[in-house]
């Protein structure tokens, strides 16, 4: 499975509408309690070129799963039942898409009477901070005794305390500038406010893209090195009802060149530092996603967990070399195949064969 992203936001900010715009899945709006999931394939011209060359029986594009998580009301992450379930959904995703209502429409109910992206982002962050504080407190209590006898544990507890103190001042973990060591010490807490965030401004039409609300959200994103994607939720959701050949024309009529899905994917790949690599042969051409700097075994684990556990080595050719030289055997003859070990970091466009000991 590729990357998965969860749409979170206040009730009625347009999450389900945007989910539909992104996935053209046609989930009902206003269902409040239901969760929607869809897997979209990541468009990649290189897959088509590999298919031309290998003529495989099967083709699989890289996938992005989008999960529409029900409205985060204030107080939803505390308490039993509903709150716990909501947290579980948020815990399961790799990245959060904060949907922020930037459209004014008095006929659509909302938590507040005004539109204020800064307030809304703080409200979402606050819920995650409450949940994370509890997680850290539990860990600190659990380890307190052990920390008296074990220096490593004491360091862990100290880092947890530091992160907790900053949370209590209102700073989500992702904005705390944590060091590698601190990150390692809190890793097993799986903090929600540490997950990378991409911001989605739900606007009425493209004219609002230069407005104050989008500007406010842009400043928030800039401050943490993140990205913002503007989506005309309601209009773009209609795209799913159109025939694919009519879609470009429809987007152009909204003043857009690409669908919100394509814009979102580009922003997500950039923000999360993702790379696509391939496996290619006569049986299958398959695009995979991993993070930049993932070592060869970790990337191999995206294909199959046995490949990570039993990793021996990886044979790598570059997509560009394959296209330039015309065939895999020509790449081999030119001495351009590399055999790499555990420390190799998989690069964008690598075509790999993994050698491993089966479990
Ligand atoms: N005017 C306008 N209305 C929108 C827009 N996006 C969504 N809406 C409307 O806002 C209402 C709520 O949208 P939903 O997508 O159901 O909101 P949600 O965030 O999923 O809400 P919950 O699941 O209840 O948290 C619906 O009536 C949508 O049609 C928009 O861009 N402009
Ligand atoms: Mg919804």
Jot down its keywords.
binds magnesium ion, binds guanosine-5'-triphosphate, 14 helices, Ubiquitin-like (UB roll), 12 strands, about 350 residues, three-stranded mixed beta sheet
Question: Could you characterize what this model shows?
Answer:
By secondary structure, the protein is an alpha/beta fold. It has a domain at 293-356: Beta-grasp domain (Ubiquitin-like (UB roll), Roll), CATH 3.10.20.30. The protein contains 14 helices and 12 strands. The strands form 3 sheets. It has a 6-stranded mixed beta sheet with strand order 2-4-1-5-6-7, with helices on both faces. A 3-stranded mixed beta sheet has the order 3-9-8, with helices on both faces. Strands 11-10-12 form a 3-stranded antiparallel beta sheet. The protein is flat, with a radius of gyration of 23 Å. The model has no long low-confidence stretch (mean pLDDT 89). It binds guanosine-5'-triphosphate and magnesium ion.
Could you give a short description of this structure?
By secondary structure, this protein is an alpha/beta fold. It has helices spanning 15-23, 45-54, 82-91, 117-149, 151-168, 180-186, 212-223, 233-237, 244-253, 260-272, 296-303, 305-309, 319-325, 328-333; strands at residues 3-8, 36-41, 58-60, 63-68, 95-101, 197-202, 228-231, 274-280, 284-291, 311-318, 338-340, 350-356.
């Amino acid at each position: 499975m590729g990357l998965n992203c969860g749409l979170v936001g206040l009730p009625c900010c347009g999450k389900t509408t945007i989910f539909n715009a992104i996935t053209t899945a046609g989930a009902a709006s206003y269902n409040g309690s239901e969760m929607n999931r869809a897997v979209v394939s990541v468009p990649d011209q290189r897959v088509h070129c590999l298919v031309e060359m290998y003529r495989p029986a099967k083709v699989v594009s890289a996938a992005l799963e989008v999960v529409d998580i029900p409205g985060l009301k204030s107080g939803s992450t505390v308490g039993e039942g509903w709150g716990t379930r909501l947290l579980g959904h948020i815990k399961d995703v790799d990245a959060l898409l904060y949907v922020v209502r930037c459209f004014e429409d008095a006929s659509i109910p909302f938590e507040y009477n005004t539109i204020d992206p800064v307030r809304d982002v703080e409200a979402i962050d606050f819920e995650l901070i409450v949940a994370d504080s509890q997680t850290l407190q539990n860990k600190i209590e659990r380890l307190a005794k052990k920390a008296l006898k074990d220096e490593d544990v004491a360091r862990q507890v100290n880092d947890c305390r530091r992160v907790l103190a900053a949370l209590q001042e209102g700073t989500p973990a992702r904005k705390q500038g944590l060091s590698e060591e601190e990150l390692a010490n809190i890793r097993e807490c799986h903090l929600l406010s540490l997950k990378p965030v991409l911001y989605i401004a739900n606007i009425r039409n493209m004219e609002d893209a230069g407005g104050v609300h989008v500007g406010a959200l842009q400043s928030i994103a800039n401050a943490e090195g993140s990205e913002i994607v503007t989506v005309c939720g309601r209009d773009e959701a209609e795209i799913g009802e159109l025939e694919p050949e009519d879609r470009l024309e429809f987007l152009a009529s909204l003043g857009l060149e690409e669908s919100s899905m394509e814009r979102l994917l580009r922003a997500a790949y950039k923000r999360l530092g993702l790379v696509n690599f391939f496996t290619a042969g006569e049986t299958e051409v398959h695009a995979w996603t991993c993070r930049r700097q993932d070592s060869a075994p970790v990337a191999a684990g995206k294909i199959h967990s046995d490949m990570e556990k039993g990793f021996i080595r990886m044979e790598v050719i570059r997509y560009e070399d394959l296209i330039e030289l015309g065939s895999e055997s020509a790449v081999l003859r030119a001495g351009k195949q590399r055999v790499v070990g555990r420390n190799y970091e998989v690069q964008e466009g690598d075509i790999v064969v993994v050698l491993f000991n089966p479990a």
